[in-house]
Design goal:
It contains 10 helices and no strands. By secondary structure, the protein is mainly alpha-helical.
Length: 169
């Protein structure tokens, strides 16, 4: 009974944090520095959420998922913001696996953002490199590449493998 109560209390805390950071991201801070800090906060919270949460608890992710897929974040000009958004979306994909968290056209944009992040593998250090490694690990572990096949983005798959070969070289 104690473990169940602890899990429920932990989930309540995470749920409040998810909703809060989602609402703050939806307001889209004008400062790049503030936005990056918010995205980093979202990453930390999402990393605490277990994979395959029950649908009854998934509603806590809604505002954050909505904010992350907004044009302002998906198409942000700053590389650090793009990689941080990709990292958050990677966590969302991990949490919701094996279900697609977004529609096919949105998943295509997400994978394009993953490609931006994966290009940071060649830097071999820094927070963007660490995020790229996490995305690569999730792609391998969760077999997210299968989603790429399902939504028929074959050219991006080829581009991804070319990127890996170039990075290895």
């Amino acid at each position: 009974m104690g473990s169940s109560t602890n899990n429920e209390a932990l989930w309540k805390e995470i749920e409040v944090e998810l909703k809060d950071v989602g609402k703050r991201l939806l307001r889209f801070p004008s400062s790049t520095d503030v936005l990056l800090l918010l995205l980093e906060e979202a990453e930390i919270i999402l990393a605490r959420v277990w994979q395959g949460i029950p649908s009854s608890k998934a509603g806590a992710l809604f505002s954050l998922m909505k904010a992350l897929i907004s044009d302002e974040l998906l198409r942000h000009a700053d590389l650090n913001i793009q990689v941080a958004v990709a990292s958050c979306l990677n966590e969302i994909t991990r949490i919701t696996a094996p279900t697609f968290p977004y529609k096919d056209d949105q998943m295509k944009e997400i994978f394009q953002l993953f490609m931006v992040a994966l290009k940071q593998l060649s830097t071999e250090s820094g927070s963007n490199y660490a995020r790229a490694v996490q995305i690569l690990e999730a792609l391998a572990t969760l077999r997210s590449c299968m989603i790429m096949l399902d939504i028929e983005i074959d050219a991006m798959i080829v581009e991804m493998f070319q990127l890996f070969f170039d990075t290895i070289r």
